């Protein structure tokens, strides 16, 4: 279930990285904003977080399209460091925006209940299982979208060769807008589903940005199923280390495993050598 959380956090990031060849280091901060929106939808209007995705998905898709059209598209012809600087600025802006309006206090969904049940001696919660199934469902739907639809094939073509795709009549600019919008929408989905099980504060997205980056490179940049399997791999390493060795060592073990895998397979466990 931990791996499912990681995979869900990385799904949008790997889509953006595969199509546009950029890494959005502010991905976790977009998740954080989605968590705040979901939190207020629940506390003010009593909308269940699992139902609030019908609001957060289109909202964050629109936010992603606007960011791509007005900001990132203009930076694609600039030196690569420009996009990194822009994403870093977006990261600090969103964190301080949240801290200014909603303070640094930790928030939690009070009164929200989740069911717990036993299965073969293990305890499961319905919320974490919902996240796990959402990660698997998102991966399957993304794969179908990218392989079976016209716009999905255009996205894949653009990710492989921008010039060739443009020569074949693909509107490359529009494809990039849609791909980035989908990536941000998936960040919104992850935030909406994570809020029932996490404390909320302005910097909550930073650890998820780091984890999502690890999962993307672990699974293979641009690989949808690689993100899912990479998330599971990272979650299993952390869970076994925390259980059999020490809880304090789980993060260290995950980073060590990540470094070793990159030394052996720089293109990721489930990616392909270019």
Blueprint (SSEs and pairs):
Elements: H1 2-20, H2 27-45, H3 53-75, H4 81-102, E1 116-119, E2 122-125, H5 126-148, H6 150-160, H7 162-167, H8 172-194, H9 205-219, H10 224-244, H11 250-264
Antiparallel strand pairs: 1-2
Q: Can you characterise this structure?
A:
With 274 residues, this protein is mainly α. It has a domain at 2-93 and 118-203. 72% of the residues lie in helices and 3% in strands. It has eleven helices and two strands; from the N terminus they run ααααββααααααα. The chain has a two-stranded antiparallel sheet. A hairpin with a 2-residue loop joins strand 1 (116-119) and strand 2 (122-125). Helix 1 (2-20) runs parallel beside helix 5, helix 1 (2-20) runs antiparallel to helix 10 (224-244) and helix 2 (27-45) crosses helix 9. The longest helix has 23 residues, at 53-75. The radius of gyration is 19 Å and the shape is globular. The relative contact order is 0.21. The mean pLDDT is 88.
Describe, in short, the structure shown.
The chain is mostly helical and about 270 residues long. The protein has a domain at about 1-95 and about 120-205.
Can you give keywords for this protein?
274 residues, mainly alpha, 2 strands, 3% strand
Give the distance, in angstroms, between the N- and C-terminal Cα atoms. 32 Å
Enumerate the strands of the largest sheet in spatial order, edge to edge or round the barrel.
Answer: 1-2
What is the general shape?
Answer: globular
**Percent of residues in beta strands:** under 5%
Low-confidence stretches: none
Mean pLDDT over the residues:
88
Count of distinct strands: 2
Elements, N to C (H/E)? HHHHEEHHHHHHH
What is the makeup of the main sheet? 2 strands, antiparallel
Q: Radius of gyration from the CA trace?
A: 19 Å
Structural class: mainly alpha
Alpha plus pi helix count: 11
Helix content: over 70%
């Amino acid at each position: 279930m931990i791996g499912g959380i990681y995979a869900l956090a990385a799904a949008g990031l790997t889509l953006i990285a595969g199509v546009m060849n950029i890494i959005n280091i502010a991905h976790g901060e977009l998740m954080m904003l989605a968590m705040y929106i979901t939190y207020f939808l629940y506390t003010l209007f009593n909308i269940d977080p699992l139902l609030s995705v019908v609001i957060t998905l289109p909202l964050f898709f629109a936010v992603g399209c606007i960011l791509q059209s007005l900001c990132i598209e203009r930076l694609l012809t600039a030196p690569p460091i420009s996009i990194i600087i822009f994403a870093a600025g977006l990261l600090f802006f969103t964190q301080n925006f949240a801290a200014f309006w909603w303070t640094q206090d930790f928030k939690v969904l009070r009164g929200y209940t989740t069911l717990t049940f036993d299965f073969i001696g293990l305890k499961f919660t319905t919320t974490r299982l919902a996240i796990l199934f959402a990660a698997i469902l998102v991966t399957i739907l993304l794969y179908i979208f990218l392989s079976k639809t016209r716009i999905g094939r255009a996205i894949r073509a653009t990710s492989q060769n921008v010039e060739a795709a443009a020569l074949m009549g693909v509107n490359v600019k529009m494809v990039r807008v849609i791909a980035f919008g989908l990536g941000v929408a998936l960040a919104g989905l992850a935030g909406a589903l994570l809020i029932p099980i996490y404390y909320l504060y302005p910097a909550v997205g930073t650890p998820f940005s780091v984890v999502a980056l690890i999962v993307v490179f672990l699974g293979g940049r641009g690989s949808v199923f690689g993100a899912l399997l990479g998330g599971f791999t990272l979650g299993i390493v952390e869970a076994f280390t925390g259980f059999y060795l020490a809880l304090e060592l789980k993060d260290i073990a995950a980073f060590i495993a990540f470094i070793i895998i990159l030394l052996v397979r720089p293109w990721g466990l489930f990616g392909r050598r270019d």
